[in-house]
Sequence to fold (249 residues):
Amino acid sequence: MTVPENPGAAGREPAEPLPTAVQPAAVQPTAAQLAEGYAAKAGLHRSGNGNIDVLKSAGGIQGIAESILPGLVFLVAFTIARELPLALVSALAVAAAFTVARLIQRKPLTQALAGIAGVGLSAWLANTTGKAEDFYVPGFFTNAAYIVVMAISIAVRWPFAGLLFGFIRNEGLDWRKQPARVRAYRIGTWVIIGVLALRLLVQLPLYFMGEAGFSALATTRLLMGAPLYILGIWVAWLLTRPAPAATPS
Fold:
C-alpha cells in the first residue's frame, strides 16, 4: 500500500493548486534612457543652467591632472636622465598615485584605472622596443579607432555628438526625427573627428623622426590631449545648438 505524503489529506479531494504569483514584466529602458546612460558613462555632465559642463566632463581638475601628469613626468624624467626605465617607472608611479588617491577619496576608479592601464601598456611597449617614442604608439591606435567609430556613426545616421549631447538638451533621441538636428549633430561629430585627426597629422610625422622628434612629440601630445579635447567638445556643443524658437508676433 502506498502511503500518502500527507497522511492527514487521505480521503479528501486534492486541493486546487495555488495560483502562481504573476511576476512583473521587466521594465525595459527607453531609447532616451539608454542614450542618457551612454552619455553619462562617456563622462558628460550638465551644468545648473542646462549647458554642458566642459570642465567636469573632462574629469575636473583631478581628471585633467590624471591625463596630463604621467606623460609630463615621463617627458621630464627622460629629458633629464636619458634613462628610459627610470622615466617609465616615474610615469607609472604617478598613475598609481592617482589611483591610490581616488581610493582614499572614495571616488570612482574608472578613469584612474583606465589611465594606469594605458600608461602600463605604453610603458611595456616602450620598454620592449627600447624606444622612448613608442610610449605614445597606443594613443595613435586609440585615436584611429575613435575616428572609425565616429565616421560609422555618421554614415548610419546615429552621429556620435547626438548621442553625447542629446540628453543634456533633454532631446533624448527625438533629434533623430528632425533632419536639421541630424545634420547639426553630424557637423558636431565631424568637429570631434577633426580634433582626433589633427592629433595624428601632427604627431605621426614627429614619431617617425625617431629620437630627434621625441621632445616635440611629447610636448604636442600634452598640448593636444585634454586642452584640445575640451576645446573640441565646446565647439561641437556650440555648433549643434538648436535654433531658437520663433516668438509669436
Remarks:
- The longest helix spans residues 179-208.
